[in-house]
Specification:
The complex is a heterodimer of chains A (215) and B (163).
Chain A lengths: L2 H19 L16 H16 L12 H7 L2 H14 L8 E2 L4 H10 L13 E10 L5 E9 L4 E8 L7 E8 L2 E7 L3 E7 L3 H16 L1
Antiparallel strand pairs in A: 1-2, 2-3, 3-4, 4-7, 5-6, 6-7
Chain B lengths: L2 H4 L3 H12 L2 H17 L9 H19 L5 E3 L16 H9 L3 H13 L3 H8 L3 H19 L9 E3 L1
Antiparallel strand pairs in B: 1-2
Chain lengths: 215, 163
Amino acid sequence: MNEHDDAQLTALLKRHYDPVAIEPIPARMYLRSPRWIGFARGAALVLAGIAIGFGMYPYVRPVVAPKAEAAAVHPFAVRAARAHAMYTAEVRHPIEVRATEEHLVRWLSRRLNYNLKVPVLAEEGFELLGGRLLPGGDGGAVALFMYQDGSGKRLTLQVTRRAKAEQLTGFRFAKEGNVTVFYWIDRECGYALSGDLDRTALTRIATAVYKQLEQ
Amino acid sequence: MDYNLIVPYIPNLRRYARALVGDRDGADDLVQDTLERAVRKFHLWRPGDLRAWLFSIMHNVFVNQLKARKISPDVEIDETFAAPMSTVTSLDLQDLQRALGALAPEQREVVLLVALEDMSYADVSRALGIPMGTVMSRLSRGRERLRRAMSGEPARNGLKVVT
């Protein structure tokens, strides 16, 4: 057994099958559960998203050239990954407004013209540091919330209003450098959770975020 | 039961199923059956590794599907064949799927969980309900066989036992 060959084989399999993970999730997979009615709404949104996005996202991508992969990642996710890398690297000024200042959420909500909710991620080991305002696409604004855990690892949650022409998406992953982004766009907003974490860890945190936003 | 917890794993399940089954529709059917079963059995899940639990459900559904189609997994008994070194850089998806199809399903499962999900031997052992030793031997045989299949060697016949 040659370790190099094994690594090569793994890379080959990932290269060919990873794109499946960012394909839109078929609406039929969003099952209804009696205690979670909110998801029926989600399923309807995804259906609408698929209908709208049909032309843009080819369902079958037989061979994936890096170009095709890049094209499938939403620009919002790419911007989120870059902003994450830029601001989490700041030692002294990662944020503009600290979490302890009451007007943080009011201010960002006003700038986005949307009542923002800030998820609490204490159970996942992350505390909110604070936030900042960033430019988004097409003159829009992005609210960035930064979290940090005990070891100094940082996460960002970025929220922007959905432009009218913007299609909705199911949950998607994107990766830019070391930054993994878990993102989705619902009727009101696009959300991107970014971190230098593996997918499993990020997925767990994204689940907590999504859950709190839905409440 | 909170389906919300399961949703983030759907991309993982789909990716794995696509590689395991080969065709898109068959793979999505496997995912769908897995999700429905997971919802029915959710009360049996104890907070812990939800991913391993979901993959173990998918494994059971997959095995049932194989049985229903009366496809018997092949078990390779001759491992003395020397594998040529192959460089596998320019291979299209169809070639890769064909090569994966040359693997016994239980080898394919182990190879794919390790490659696509970065699972440890212990994770795979839990997900498939097999001992770690079996995980390791299926992994190394599966990888060898996959390499052979990709280098264009025909599958050898007459060396299979039906279990």
